[in-house]
Amino acid sequence: MDEYELTAIEVTRENVTTPLSFREGRIVVVTDLGTRFWYADIEGIEPKELLEALAASDNIRIALSAVTTDGRVLRGIGFMHPNVTRGSAAVRGDGELEGIG
Length: 101
Prior knowledge:
The chain is mainly beta. It has one helix at 48-55; strands spanning 2-13, 16-20, 24-32, 35-43, 61-68, 73-83, 88-93.
């Protein structure tokens, strides 16, 4: 399991790219029995409008672009599950995460 702390995150949904302001973000990459999958946890998200729009929509598929603390750029497609009350979200990756070794 590899974990990457994030310093910048952009989310693209329905052809609109939104840079996120957040308190804490990380991507975890898990390799199990030759299969690799990833997920992201993001806390303290602004703007809240993005979380509200996702909560009200059946389409939670997003493109994520993130920068790690060591400057690595990670990109992937996933499903963003918002928690509007907490101002947080979990992203479940769907396929490959670009930018990891």
